[in-house]
């Protein structure tokens, strides 16, 4: 069971408990949308799979650069050209999740950010359905967040798909959400309750840096993520310029050229680190004075990775950072897009206790996630 402070008691994080392995003797299916090069949602699926190692995995398709060695059964969509276009495949996804397999399962757990939560096996009418939600599909329900759904000509198709999304998910017995932000969307869009289980972050890897990395001067600001508009890397450059501090931008994406042009016009050095390895990213976190995160995310794994390195977060007071960053203790939150407001807060960053910042990140570890998932599954399948 989950205690008030978020700790888990009575459930083995590896999936077992006092009565033996979790769901012993029952057939289990794990379902994920599409499996690409490992990202946040894929990491959630893999961590759930660690809790239930005997479960059978299903995906719409897996990309060629996806992690090797996983035993995942692809849907019939994988054998069509539609696997190369998520947008074109979208209208067929609800049908695909209803024609996935003729196998029978006692428990079905989906990892969903589009339509995976609508999965239903016709051969298992009495199955128990649980769904972990990264977000109700943004391009359907929150087009202001995702430009793929903001085109006016998509208004009618979007409404049709919204209706299907609600109608085809009524059989789900229990939802889990990755944050309060997503929990609120599930209630608003689907009129369903959800338990909050924060996604797993590999805090051990980022905290366990070589001694030389721990002794860095922390003399630059850092931005990490995909270089796309809503991540606001352009604002990060403005913040660094207003603060008179060097900036390192780590990641990749379609905005690279525009960001490089902007960086050439400001009065501080801006360094671009394209697709750094995890070890290199850890080194960058440890060398930064603080992480800039002036964007609205559902949860936000990057701030937790930074905090695991003792690096405070300077972020926008919206979304997931309200749950991960303790304002005034592990970072500072700002109610503005004015770069001067962020720059003004930088003078307070050095007064934070970096050991306290590091310790706070442990609440979001993979071990805590596995324990919380095991507790959720045990409660909902008892």
Strand content: 15-25%
| CATH topology annotation of the largest domain | Rossmann fold
Say how many strands there are.
15
Number of structural units classed as domains: 2
Assign an overall shape.
globular
- What is the class of the largest domain in the CATH system? Alpha Beta
Our count of helices gives 16
**What integer value in Å does the Rg equal?**
21 Å
Say which CATH homologous superfamily of the largest domain is assigned: Glycogen Phosphorylase B
Helices and strands: which structural class?
A: alpha/beta
Query: What's the arrangement of strands in the largest beta sheet?
Result: 5-4-3-6-7-8-9
Gap between N and C termini, in Å? Answer: 13 Å
Helical amount: 25-40%
Which architecture of the largest domain per CATH?
A: 3-Layer(aba) Sandwich
* Uncertain regions spanning at least 5 consecutive residues: 1-11
- Main sheet overview: 7 strands, parallel
What is the arithmetic mean of pLDDT?
89
């Amino acid at each position: 069971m989950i205690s008030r402070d978020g700790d888990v008691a009575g459930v083995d994080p590896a999936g077992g408990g006092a009565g033996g392995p979790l769901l012993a003797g029952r057939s289990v299916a794990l379902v994920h949308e599409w499996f690409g090069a490992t990202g946040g949602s894929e990491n959630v699926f893999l961590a759930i799979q660690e809790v239930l190692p005997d479960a059978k995995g299903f995906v719409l398709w897996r990309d060629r650069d996806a992690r090797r060695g996983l035993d995942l059964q692809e849907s019939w969509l994988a054998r069509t050209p539609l696997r190369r276009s998520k947008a074109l495949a979208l209208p067929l996804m609800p049908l695909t999740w209803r024609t996935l397999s003729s196998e029978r399962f006692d428990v079905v757990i989906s990892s969903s950010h589009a339509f995976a939560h609508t999965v239903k096996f016709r051969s298992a009418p009495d199955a128990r359905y649980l769904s972990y939600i990264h977000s109700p599909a943004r391009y359907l329900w929150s087009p202001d967040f995702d430009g793929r759904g903001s085109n006016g000509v998509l208004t009618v198709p979007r409404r049709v798909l919204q209706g299907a999304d609600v109608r085809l998910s009524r059989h789900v017995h229990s939802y889990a959400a990755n944050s309060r932000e997503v929990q609120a969307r599930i209630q608003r869009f689907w009129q369903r309750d959800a338990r909050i289980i924060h996604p797993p972050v590999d805090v051990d890897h980022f905290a366990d840096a070589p001694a030389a990395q721990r002794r860095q001067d922390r003399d630059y600001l850092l931005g990490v993520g995909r270089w796309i508009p809503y991540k606001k890397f352009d604002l990060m450059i403005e913040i660094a310029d207003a603060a008179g501090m060097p900036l390192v931008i780590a990641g990749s994406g379609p905005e690279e050229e525009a960001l490089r042009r902007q960086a050439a016009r400001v009065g501080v050095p801006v360094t671009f680190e394209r697709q750094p390895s995890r070890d290199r990213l850890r080194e960058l976190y440890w060398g930064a004075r603080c992480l800039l995160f002036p964007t609205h995310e559902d949860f936000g794994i990057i701030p937790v990775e930074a905090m695991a390195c003792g690096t405070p977060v300077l972020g926008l007071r919206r979304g997931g950072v309200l749950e991960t960053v303790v304002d005034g203790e592990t970072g500072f939150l700002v109610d503005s897009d004015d770069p001067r407001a962020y720059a003004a807060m930088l003078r307070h960053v050095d007064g934070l206790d970096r050991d306290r910042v590091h310790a706070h990140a442990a609440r979001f570890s993979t071990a805590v996630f596995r324990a919380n998932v095991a507790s959720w599954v045990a409660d909902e399948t008892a």
